[in-house]
Amino acid sequence: ADTLREAAAEQGRFIGTALNDGLLGNAAYSAIAGGEFSSVTAENAMKWGSLEPNRGQYNWAGADRLVEFAAAHGQQVYGHTLVWHSQLPGWVENGGFAPAELREIVDNHIATVAGRYAGEIDRWDVLNEVFNENGTFRDSVFHRAFGEEYIADAFRAAHAADPEAALFINDYNTDGINAKSDAMYRLVSSLLADGVPVHGVGFQSHMILGQMPSTYRANLQRFSDLGLEVVVTELDIRMNTPSDAARLDQQADQYRQVIGDCLAVSGCSGVTVWGVSDRDSWIPGVFPGEGAANLYDDDYRPKPAYGAVLDAL
Ligand code: XIL
Predict the structure, then answer these.
(1) Does the predicted TM-score (pTM) go above 0.90?
(2) How far apart are CA 168 and CA 230, in angstroms?
(3) How far is the CA of 48 from the centre of ligand 1 (A)?
(4) The complex's ipTM?
(5) How many domains does the chain have?
(6) What is the CATH number of the domain that holds 187?
(7) Shortest-distance Cα residue to atom 3 of ligand 1
(8) Which residues, by range, are in coiled-coil regions (predicted)?
(9) Which domain holds residue 161?
(10) pLDDT, tens digit, for every residue of 152-174?
(11) Best substitution site from 130, 282, 283 to test ligand 1's pocket, by max atoms within 8 Å of Cβ?
(12) C-beta 44 within 6 A of ligand 1
């Protein structure tokens, strides 16, 4: 295979990237995004704060551009994300709404967004990051109003709005077997038992160089064994910068392991890397002194990790 997407297709899997629609005017960026990847996730454009910064005033431009780009390049679309405590518009987070009104606001949001793109989205992160590290539910405007019921309600609303989309719950630091992934396992088990339309679990997999969770494959496997689809949703492997040849090779090995673990798990349908190049990555902005986490370097040249992923697929 000459491209990541061809190699992934031969395995019956997808390989995705987080797409920043604001960068599509950059020819190098859009050529790689469209040519190498078979799925795109909106890095920010489908978050509530991007779509509806003021109540009732929607800004669809970025999300529409992404969906059009995907259609033009024969790509799947991974919707991200309907209900999340972060990157919310201020009017939702600080609105002081009574539960009954917040219920209507959330239902309307899900119906409007999932409804607009119904039929064009393969997978939706209905819920993102609902857990604390110790496995308790994270405090949020939603949890405060409804308790954990907001999770099942969101899945039901998303399913009503887009019955074709596979509905996911996504989180970070759930990559290995630990208190947080145990909580995720209990939650999705109980949702399934209750007949809630949940179809998959996303494992963000924002990794640190040299810290591959030893139970990564076993963890993906136990969720797959529940009959759920499993996706590596936001993979990157960060290191202290500047990088050097030895660490880029070590990174390539770690990327190879992640791909191998997904391929070893029958329910693992694909892997999305969180950004195209190191230049576009969110890492340096959030983890000062770290970066070089993606498959292409600052000049859009493929790194050793690119070759490793192509080879592993
Ligand atoms: C990040 C984006 O990459 C940044 O551009 C933005 O400023 C903040 O959010 N978990 C998620 C993603 O689910 O939505 C986050 O994306 C990274 C962590």
Answers:
(1) yes
(2) 9
(3) 13
(4) 0.99
(5) 1
(6) 3.20.20.80
(7) 282
(8) none
(9) 4-312
(10) 999 999 999 999 999 999 999 99
(11) 282
(12) yes
